Fold each of these.
Amino acid sequence: KAGVTQTPRYLIKTRGQQVTLSCSPISGHRSVSWYQQTPGQGLQFLFEYFSETQRNKGNFPGRFSGRQFSNSRSEMNVSTLELGDSALYLCASSMPGTVYGYTFGSGTRLTVV
Amino acid sequence: AQTVTQSQPEMSVQEAETVTLSCTYDTSESDYYLFWYKQPPSRQMILVIRQEAYKQQNATENRFSVNFQKAAKSFSLKISDSQLGDAAMYFCAYRSAVYGNKLVFGAGTILRVKS
């Protein structure tokens, strides 16, 4: 059974650019959540999508957005990148109706220069 | 808002020994879930153990067990017979049973295992 796949693994972008990260959940998982991990702020919840709808949103500026497709794959987009956006972005998927089944991907390491 | 506190930035344990990682949390909710996740250098977060707040019995998964004290809002992780492969960053996490499918994480504890 394939795990949660995040692409790309590494990314280097310049300030002011935008970036799109992708997350393919485990087959059958319809909920996808995104987290930002930095040394200073730790792990912070960005947003959650379920059946193509955003159900939850963390306390991040509007430059951070996401979407989910009908096959449950999700993308997150960060516009007008800032140096502080450098982080590991983790995606987690889960089965509907379960509170346990969070499976994380290996993340995308974004570096903004 | 819920908060999770891990007061030990780093811990060390000798191989085959036992170590306990601490976690406290703050919530006004009565129904919730608690988790311990492990993050090795590969970066992938791996679920170690989980606990439902309504269950009084402490969860156990092989060498991993928790001491869940609901009144004290404490949720510590005990690792018995520590192995080199246990070396990683460990995160305690909280999830509300009612309000949304999101995890609130502590700052993490780096666990070093000495051979």
Amino acid sequence: DAKTTQPNSMESNEEEPVHLPCNHSTISGTDYIHWYRQLPSQGPEYVIHGLTSNVNNRMASLAIAEDRKSSTLILHRATLRDAAVYYCILRATNQAGTALIFGKGTTLSVSS
Amino acid sequence: DADVTQTPRNRITKTGKRIMLECSQTKGHDRMYWYRQDPGLGLRLIYYSFDVKDINKGEISDGYSVSRQAQAKFSLSLESAIPNQTALYFCATSDPLQGAGTDTQYFGPGTRLTVL
């Protein structure tokens, strides 16, 4: 399985943008890039996913490098509630219904 | 109301006891999963079910069993609890109609289990 590499931790100030990087140099052409986050004392929650093009939703934006070997989750204005562990996960098209493979993720701290 | 609920939210039990964790969902999804999370580690899959008649072992199924009583209910049992089963347990669901590679999983709030 293709692996992802994320920084262990990042810090941000409230109301500032946050760019969370993810490297996936061995990604295959059929791998989707998913992001989940886990707030303290809660289960993981889906944030966003993409294949090749940049994606936006109400929670975040996903910027995917042209060679797809890296991606960046963008929180446009961090709030205290965004403090969480963020996981970058690759999902192949033949993995529908299989387990999500969570690494250690990036722990985001947000200060007021 | 939460779409995926788990009961109990916290449980302390003793070594050797049988314990059941329950998961219910109102999302109408056919697929359900049980994961465990240990401190500092990612989630690991215990069992999963694609429909009421389908049960599959995951990465770490030893010491666990499951029951899919209905589309909406998926229970995890520890036949004889041991201390190294102390962990956070999460139930999740997904919709196969979302398409290959894009299926999103929706997680419950978790059950914190302590085995003494």
Amino acid sequence: GQNIDQPTEMTATEGAIVQINCTYQTSGFNGLFWYQQHAGEAPTFLSYNVLDGLEEKGRFSSFLSRSKGYSYLLLKELQMKDSASYLCAVRVNTNAGKSTFGDGTTLTVKP
Amino acid sequence: NAGVMQNPRHLVRRRGQEARLRCSPMKGHSHVYWYRQLPEEGLKFMVYLQKENIIDESGMPKERFSAEFPKEGPSILRIQQVVRGDSAAYFCASSAGREEPQYFGPGTRLLVL
């Protein structure tokens, strides 16, 4: 199976930068996704990494190191609306193509 | 371009009744995934379907739960003889292919009294 670890909670200040880490242990790795989920709402897709390196998309960037089983999501210029849960999900290279989700990191942005 | 649709958004059932949750994937998507989320917990994979076929049901309880994705119409997650422990948010996601990102519907919040 897959084991995915993320910090449970983080707090940051509006305008700052925050890095949310995700470590995973799996065989047949075939991609890592980050999702944002506001309380009571559906997860929304943020980013996808399958090769090592940094993927940048506006204020959000995601990094992957396959050899270390490690990824992070970087949020710049934090806004109050960024307060949400951030979910790391790993896909393995099986016929199923399913993704296994971590329990999420709840980020609170304070003024 | 409509996103993933789920209905009902909220469903209340008494113990022993049946719950039917429906999911219409995003246009052009033929891969559907069902997840369950308990309060304060992460998403747990239940089942993955592609038109008329169940690809992976390893996360779905063997009893009382079933899923289908017919050639025509939405995907259905069916829970028979519901119990209080079935109370959760059930999310459906769809993708254009096995390698593509999954996009989530708004979820169905099931409450079993």
Amino acid sequence: DTAVSQTPKYLVTQMGNDKSIKCEQNLGHDTMYWYKQDSKKFLKIMFSYNNKELIINETVPNRFSPKSPDKAHLNLHINSLELGDSAVYFCAVSDASYEQYFGPGTRLTVT
Amino acid sequence: RKEVEQDPGPFNVPEGATVAFNCTYSNSASQSFFWYRQDCRKEPKLLMSVYSSGNEDGRFTAQLNRASQYISLLIRDSKLSDSATYLCVVLYNDMRFGAGTRLTVKP
């Protein structure tokens, strides 16, 4: 079983659309994260959730919203997509040690 | 000054070589430190946590110098499979990633 999974793996969409990326973990870890890796390969944290509560919210546009229906899932909703949103989005999970385990990534292309 | 800085490389080394990477961080109150590796078009994977006393895992040795605010990663007897980007990660309130150091090990 994959510890951290994401769907879809690839997402191509037009500007202005609304899309969601799903993340699921089976490790039972308390904290889940969303990261964005842009074309320069720089990895930046966007959000983290601990026990269904948002504990970090980086200065990302409010078009991005994380939603956690339960402890095993943290989905990322993006409204009114822009060209600059094109990137690879990674979900990650960690326990109290802060060692993180990443999902395989979702490559988003906005045209 | 960037929060986490790494030499982007690339480092090109022959098989069997020893190679070392350094990473500096700006916040002296940083709490935890990690090295991750990322292969091309793949997710980052935890290589090792970095402990205050230094730690070793096979061919890999990590060191932390709090006074000078840097961490290091030493790879001995490099293998072709070590070719990847190595990411330095520092925890201060949240996780801060360095931009990575690209390593290529050649036959």
